[in-house]
Amino acid sequence: MRLVLFGPPGAGKGTQATRIKEAFGVVHIATGDIFRANVEGETEVGLEAQEYMDRGELVPDDVVIRMVEARLVQPDAQQGFLLDGFPRTVAQAEALQDFLQRNDRPLDAVVRLVVGEDELFERLAGRQREEGRTDDEAEVVEQRLEEYREKTAPLEEYYRDHGLLVDVDGTGTVDEVSERLLDALRERTGEGSQA
Ligand code: AMP
Questions:
Q1: CA 65 to each of CA 74, 99, 109, 127, 182: distance values in angstroms, whole numbers, following the listed order
Q2: 144 is catalytic
Q3: Is 19 marked active-site?
Q4: How far from the centroid of its chain's Cα atoms is residue 87's Cα?
Q5: pTM summary value
Q6: Taking residues 9-35, what's their average pLDDT?
Q7: Are 125 and 145 in contact (CB under 8 A)?
Q8: Which of 11, 27, 30, 93 could form a disulfide with 87 if both were Cys (CB 3.0 to 4.6 A apart)?
Q9: Does 35 contact ligand 1 (Cβ within 6 A)?
Q10: Is the CB of 10 under 6 A from ligand 1?
């Protein structure tokens, strides 16, 4: 299974990614996590990415694409993968299509977690209160939403045109969403263990 999971910040991608990983036995590749590890380790990629991440902006495409391609050639990714947080721009999606086509390993499906703006705002505001975030941090959250609207939302059309898009309602409890999501994927691919 080769999958992509996308959706706006606050849609619950990370949580659902864990469920998909367990059900289908694929490696979970989260670009945000890889960047954070690189920042922590003060690597070259980390140094390049940090200023963008701090502002809530997307890291430049060439940096991200290089990093993901290096990850996808690792042995553990040969049995299948779930990309979480990548692609986030149409240019990244095109680079991924090219790369997978060259390797004769096309995507099986792209899941979009659909959550309305009002609910997202509620969830993000709730998180902010809980974590006692500052105004600066609130601004970063707003910036991340803006980046999503402008650069990532167009992936919907891109993947629909490629016949890969699977829309999943992201509202309700974690269990409700994961049941919907796993059912949709099983229906589409005919794979995966029964819950
Ligand atoms: P995330 O944990 O997925 O929200 O990612 C945290 C941050 O890492 C994002 O706000 C971006 O700055 C950066 N990032 C992660 N994935 C990508 C990507 N595919 N393209 C550009 N920037 C990314």
A1: 15, 10, 19, 30, 28
A2: yes
A3: no
A4: 7
A5: 0.92
A6: 94
A7: no
A8: 93
A9: yes
A10: no
Ligand 1 lined by 32 (C-beta under 6 Å): yes
Instruction: Give yes or no for a contact between 174 and 12, defined as CB atoms under 8 angstroms apart.
Output: yes
Helix axes 61-72, 31-40, angle to 10 degrees: 100
Sorted by sequence, the CB contacts under 8 Å of residue 124 that are 6+ apart come out as 9, 10, 141, 145
Q: Which of 126-135, 138-147, 150-159 has the lowest mean pLDDT?
A: 126-135
Whether residue 145 contacts residue 138, with contact meaning beta carbons closer than 8 Å, is answered with no
> Cα(172)–Cα(33) distance, rounded to whole angstroms?
25
Q: Are 1 and 98 in contact (CB under 8 A)?
A: no
Ligand 1 atom index nearest CA of 88: 19
On whether the CB atoms of residues 111 and 184 are closer than 8 A, the answer is yes
